[in-house]
Design a protein that fits this description.
globular; 7 helices; 3-stranded antiparallel beta sheet; 7-stranded mixed beta sheet; alpha+beta; 219 residues; 2 domains; D-Maltodextrin-Binding Protein, domain 2; single chain
């Protein structure tokens, strides 16, 4: 398994260990499947995607389906759906939709699905890639780019820890970040196995995981 090594509170590699919301989900899936799921560390999300293309990863813990990724991965039904937001400086106005800022310079994490989606929907928009959400928000804070696009929970997590009073959310997408387990598409049985494992996760378990990680009650 490969993951995003720096996307808290959703997931992270911390001293070689898988932590974050997805780790709780994967633990449930592992128990349901009855086979150990072993982490293959990567240094960035872009490297995770490269590992998947090279078949070094059998699965990715959390990934959004895109046309480009379907060439080498299958996707389970989503098990987590997160709002997508735009973060900018506190002196910027709130926006009703992305059309209002389509001429602005926006950042995304390199190889994230949202970058592919933005390029398709707004081909004239200038998209700047960062290695991580933290790096991207620093670019916003320094005035290098107008805003940065990421998930609501991750942006909120970064705001609380590193950008208190410096940045704010100025807009929300209609589309959500629907996160599935991605499985290598040359092993179709994997898709079936993980779809069944995800179906075993109750709404109560999902709500508990969300509450624990958003309120900081994990250790």
């Amino acid at each position: 398994m490969c993951i995003d090594p720096d996307w808290m509170p959703l997931e992270k590699i911390d001293q070689g260990k898988h932590i974050g919301m997805s780790s709780a989900y994967i633990a449930i899936m592992e128990k349901e499947i009855g086979i150990p799921i072993v982490l293959l560390p990567s240094n960035s999300w872009a490297e995770t995607i490269q590992f998947a293309k090279e078949r070094r990863c059998d699965i990715i813990s959390m990934a959004m389906i895109t046309e480009g990724r379907k060439k080498y991965m299958d996707f389970t039904l989503p098990y987590l759906s997160i709002p997508v937001v735009v973060a900018s400086r506190t002196d910027q106005f709130f926006i009703a939709n992305l059309d209002a800022i389509k001429d602005k310079k926006l950042g995304v994490v390199r190889a994230y699905a949202i970058g592919e989606i933005l390029r398709q929907q707004y081909p004239q928009m200038e998209i700047v890639e960062a290695d991580s959400l933290h790096q991207g928000l620093e670019m916003v804070n320094q005035g290098e780019i107008y805003g940065f696009v990421d998930s609501l929970v991750s942006v909120g997590y970064e705001f609380q820890r590193n950008f208190v009073g410096e940045l704010k959310i100025i807009g929300k997408f209609d589309q959500k970040w629907d996160l599935s387990v991605a499985t290598r598409n040359d092993e179709p049985l994997l898709l079936s196995v993980f779809d069944k494992a995800i179906a075993s996760i109750s709404e109560k378990q999902k709500q508990t995981i969300m509450w624990l990680y958003l309120t900081g009650h994990t250790t």
